[in-house]
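Letters spell out the chain; backbone shape is given numerically. Both lines appear below:
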Amino acid sequence: MLRFFYSLLVYFLLPFTCFKFIYRGFKQPDYLKHWDERYGFYSLLTKKIWSHQKTLWIHSVSVGETKAAIPLIKLFLKKYPDHHLLITHGTPTGRSTSIDINDSRIHRIYLPFDTPGAIKRFFSTFKPEMGLLLETELWFNLIHQAYQKSIPLYLINARLSEKSFQLYKKILFLIKPSLQELKGVLAQTISDKKRFESLGALNVEVMGNLKFDVIPPRNTVTKSILLKKHLHLKNQQVLLIASSRKGEEELILQSLLKLHIKNFVTIFVPRHPQRFREVELILKKYGVTFIKRSDKKITSKPYQFILGDSMGEMYVYYNLTNIALIGGTLLPYGGQNLIESMAMKVPLILGPNTYNFHDVSNQAIREGAGKRIKTIDELKKVLPQMLKLSNQLKMKEACNKLMDLHQGATLKILNKIKTTL
């Protein structure tokens, strides 16, 4: 009965999704593509092709989840050569995220909205033998229909912040039945495990974080050399503002303008591509000298800032960087992925808001891989200290140790779920 009213609500909201896509399409045209997939409609040819496939299915909603799934995708393709791999997404950026794998058995589409009809058409078309949902993707009709059709469905790399936990407790009547219909919950940390169990989840195990197993793309070094030449970077110290969120760029810019560090450049890389223009206007507002990654020709004249207005190059930016300030941590967004920074041996700066990566953030600070600032005003004290070569070497070593300590989640997850196939 509860799921019935939930479905009514989803059906009620469905017409508004058209307006949402059109509105977002003005800034990001990819939102105007593949609407049929969004609503669970597939061609007769698609149905015919997939009726003969042996299919494994992974749902990775956006960029972070897609990158985290790459090691698992590689292992699946190697271990199950007769299977095709269906990867579903929720955002255009997730769907376009490079996975650095060239294999005709990989297929990428949007997961349909969580209506009973759309989900039924999805399962009847693709007939997956097993499904993996990454991190916190709990869709009640999706989980229930998979359970009814005896499709084993795991929540992997599962994480649940304290903030989300408190919210989910208020809708426990919906959350608990769905969690109990999952084949298993493979959590990142003990804290995540305890929270999921408190919500009623069964078969919860700690496997670690897949993001520690991600290997930078093979051409990262080559691309960074070309980009460094393109940007006319030479011996400058570089601060990367990685995956910044709305409101953060101006705070950081104001703070940096109070500093007077010689031979120093800052790269802003906004989390969402539709905000590139917005950040460009902020830089113009303050009258600073800057260039854009997308500029075709860049002169060698001195500049203070770079706008990283490109997608899929975060590892390349890290390879040019001395220090990274992780976006989403200065304002209450919960923080973006700091593990990429450590994987590239780049010491990091975190703000106070890291609940999306609570355990690893605290450990990174505790082990000396970076520093935490409580307010943006502390940046003027912390940054000059971190730019000293001796301090950078110590923090780079700490990054290495943490990466070595936490790797291995991919193999643990595969060993757990392989008995299901």
